[in-house]
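Hi U.,

Before I forget, here's the chain from the pilot set. I'm dumping it here mostly so it's searchable later in email.
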Amino acid sequence: MKIIAHGIDLVDFPRLEEVIQRHGVRFLNRVFTEREQSDADSVRNRIEKLAGRFAAKEAVLKLIGTGWRGKIAWTDIEIVNNPAGQPIVRMSGEVRRIADEAGIEQITLSITHTANFAIASAVAVAEAG
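Structure:
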């Protein structure tokens, strides 16, 4: 496997919380899948979980080189945890098409938090050769 791209993002909890308070369910449904919202609702610090997911989505958009534009929907990227708790990226729609075109076979993801920030780093890998 070889690394073909990297993306990283940082999200400020108070800023995200302010956007959610201002735009409510409309924002949540536009940015997060039903599963992501449900996962966030099941933990003690909901904003921390949502901020980590938001940072991860931004990191993936940077990794594929597009940012959020065109036919891309925020929900084309879903961040869930595997049974061991590791965050994984599920792509669909336009994001999946762009990733396939770029030869991205897998995206590895790391998310961490501080008292006020969530940071995500995403790395795209492909078969060597």
